[in-house]
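Problem 3 from the worked examples.
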Amino acid sequence: MSTTIQQYYTSCMQCPRKCKADRTSCKTGFCGETDSVRIAVACLHFGEEPLVTVHGGSGTIFFTGCTLRCAFCQNYQISQEGMGRSVNSSEFTEICLRLQKEGAENINLVTGSHIIPQLAEYLKAARRAGVIIPYCWNTSSYESVEMLELLNDTVTIWLPDLKTLSNTLAKKLFAAEDYPDVAKKAVVWMIKHNPLKIITKNKDNIEKEKIEQGVIIRHLFLPGHFEETADTLEWLKKNADGKAVISLMSQYTPVPFKEDEFHLAKRREALSSIENRLVNKTEDEDLRDLIDAYNFNYLFYQDLSDDTSWLPDFYKIQPFSNALAKPIWHWTTGFINR
């Protein structure tokens, strides 16, 4: 690690929590990580938005650690429990090249907000080594604009969450009362620096749209909180419509957390602020009416489903169902079927 990059990890101020941990001394910050880049899984993912998966799937890399640590996180094994192992720049490049060779439409970087300075260098090295497909930044949006600047001109596709505009809900679910203001600033920056560029890609005489540059803003509807989603869509209509793609998700699913009683009790307390259940038919109908009322220029909305089999288990070599993903690399084995 260069001296310049190392400075970001000493008395760490990378994320809005500004915990000032010296992550260079094998100590961890709120994110749970030192200055290492750690990965749990890399796979071809077919469950993202159609603009991202297109024909070949999204070359998804799941990083260990997180700056937000949502109470309902489906990826909690890697975002909160430290699952994964350290990779250097060479191994990271090899993973990206393998995903590209397997047909990935992009390199989808999931939850890397806590390692931006180091990861920015890894991405440039991978590009020099022959990675030509776009980089996609898949994020909670709890990150500073100053850190995002380090990814400018390297990342071209942005996949941010806008989880809630309620400070009260953010405090209860993320222990981050400032999340709404931080996330809005991050999303506005992404839109400003990345105008939409959507092309048509033909494969086997089948044409599909593909995003090469721009922003897809995700919002997950939280059961029982229709008003918060209405507020979020109102903000998106004013600030993002016509400049970014909107992805409204109805897939909220209670996670069967496997933790000790102390951590489960803390999680239950946080989750008591929402209705921890699947979205019901009435809510789905109300959301569809809301979408129609706003008439967004470009919006995705999921069909309602009570299928919970898609929930990942990252202890498995194949964390998802076979239809959702093709595993390429796992933290316990390295490359699969090399």
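Problem 4, a separate protein:
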Amino acid sequence: MIESRQKTARMLGWAGLIPFAGLAVTAVIGAPESVQQLLIGYAVAILAFLGGSLWAGALERPADAPAPLIASNLLLLAALPALLMPLSAAAGWLALMFALHLAAEWRWVLTGHPGWYRRLRLMLSGIAIGLLLVAAMGGTANG
């Protein structure tokens, strides 16, 4: 059962990068703005989803400070303006939000998780951040 959950987590995690790759491609080729906005919205939604890890980690350790709960909300609120920004600015801003989330997650949550999951989260976040930076550079070149 545990092996099945690990396999599913890995599969869903890697599949979740496909829209980030799509965003990078749309930025480089200059796809329609509606497609770009859809993919920026996806990135904001994933950041909101990842905020749940900070909540789960904080709720597992009720004696610790509430910093992860506050950080998850602040990161999402800070990410929302990306929905109104041009692609290059939005993608760059979201890359920063994902990096800050990863730092918060590593500090408060991931230390209590198994090694395979920590490595997976580091790889997935690192690739998402890299693809967002490619999108930011591609959007700058095309916009």
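Solution to problem 4. Residues 73 and 82 are 15 Å apart (CA to CA). The mean pLDDT is 91.
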